Amino acid sequence: MQESADLRAAMGSKPEVSVTSQSLDANVAGATPAKRKRGKSLSRRTGQDGHIEKSGKWFVVRFWKDIPGQERRIHVRERVCPISGPGLLSKSARKRKAREIIHASGADSAEHFKEVVKQDSGVTFREQSEIWLKQLQNRKRKPIRHSYAVTIQGALDKWILPAIGEIPLANVDNLSVKPLIEKMSAAGLSPRTVNKYVEHVKQVVESLKSPNGEPIHNRKWDPETMDLPIVEQAEQKRPSLKADAISKLMHASSGQEQALYVLLAATGLRISEALAIEERHFINGGRTITVEQQVEKDSARIVKYLKTAAAKRQVDLHPDIAEYLQRYGAGKTGLLFHTANGKPHLYGNLEDRWLTPRLVKMGLDEEGMGWHSFKRFRKTWLRAGRCLEDINNFWMAHKPQTMSEVYSHLHEELQLRLDEAERVGYGFALPASDVGSDVPIVPKLHQHSAGEKAA
Q1: What is the pLDDT of residues 154-203, one digit of tens each?
Q2: Which residues contact 2 (CB under 8 A, 6 or more apart)?
Q3: SS3 state of residue 4
């Protein structure tokens, strides 16, 4: 050890200095603080022309692009033109087309930059739900109507947003949705409603997408982890009126109310469609009704769209029903059913004023026993009468389900439809249109002829 010390002294080396905690503190205090990383800024960018290079049989342009969910920009490339043959561009033309490609991609646009930065900053579920609902209404592919958007917004405001609205969208998953499901179930919401609202949550999460259309947050939703209640079809409340109840409703009412009950039970029209029927919609001598418009929900306004594409159709009437409605509509112009000032009825008001009080008096009122119960009655009656399924679906606005139904054009055979409407009948005691008369028209049921019985 002494020899080593002497050797160091001879070489002129400095003696070792022990490192103390005090010297460490001094070094740390005097160190230059780490430079804070600057965030993305469009103002610091001067635009880009891209880099053109060969790739296989193509000239491609490579350029930088912000990608949602990624910290740094990445190089992307797009084809410019073939290297040889038809479509080959000159060097200057390739540069011009490369700039056009970059501009079309939006890589340097303020709109794309704001969208990506917003996603990177952690958009909340509430913020994304607003974007999602606007997209549903404004998209070109099957946009939803304003009335349905109002219904969705109601579910968001009452149940979903108070529970998960402020959670970053990236954190909305099975476990974060589970307390929401427990809250809705404890409040008595039906399994079908709970499942519907959870579907809204899934759609909001999946609506945040990268430029190529893929969801930013891919989720594997697990009903067991969320403890999502099972929808039992047998327990769904879909009550239907019976023939004797419909007959009693008709004979206990008069005027517009009675005629509305007759129309709904004999045709299976939706209430929104029935209240928008005008005299001009009766064709073929009153035997056929053209359905092409409806009353908007919660608004006394006629709109030209219907619930589904299959809802635009023609519904054929039994001769007795056609005669009843012709007598009822004699002298009327415009709407078959309207308020005192000629405006369309709001079907929610009519249900509270007409239908529900009568059902309560008859002891038939229950959850789900509304206007749609007439449609269920008609569908049941048509199936019981062995109505041709293609015509059945056409009248009831149900789209074809099988290839056989898709190929069939029976609904275009008018005379066949009229004959079928007369054959299957309507199933209730039709009152006379004159309210002063108590003589009912006997319901027309299908009766086999003697030849059919013998066969």
Answers
A1: 999 999 999 999 999 988 999 999 999 999 999 999 999 999 999 999 99
A2: none
A3: helix
Q: Which helix (H) or strand (E) holds 291?
A: strand 288-291
Pair 294, 276: CB distance under 8 Å: yes
Rounded distance, CA 446 to CA 389, Å? 17
CA distance readout (Å), 200 to 17, 104, 154, 165, 195: 69, 33, 12, 13, 9
Which pLDDT value is given to residue 238?
75
Asked whether the beta carbons of 50 and 63 are under 8 A apart, the reply is yes
231: pLDDT confidence band, cut at 50, 70 and 90? confident
Name residue 455's amino acid: A
65's tokens: 């692009």
pLDDT surpassing 90 at residue 1: no
- Name the pLDDT band for 14 (thresholds 50, 70, 90): very low
Q: From its phi and psi, is residue 70 left (phi > 0), alpha (psi between -120 and 50) or beta?
A: beta
Among candidate residues 120, 145, 118, 119, the one with its CA nearest the CA of residue 133? 145
Residue 252 neighbours by CB distance under 10 Å: 14
65 dihedral zone (left: phi>0; alpha: psi -120 to 50; beta): beta
> Of how many residues is the chain composed?
455
pTM of the model: 0.62
Helix (H) / strand (E) element for 154: namely helix 146-155
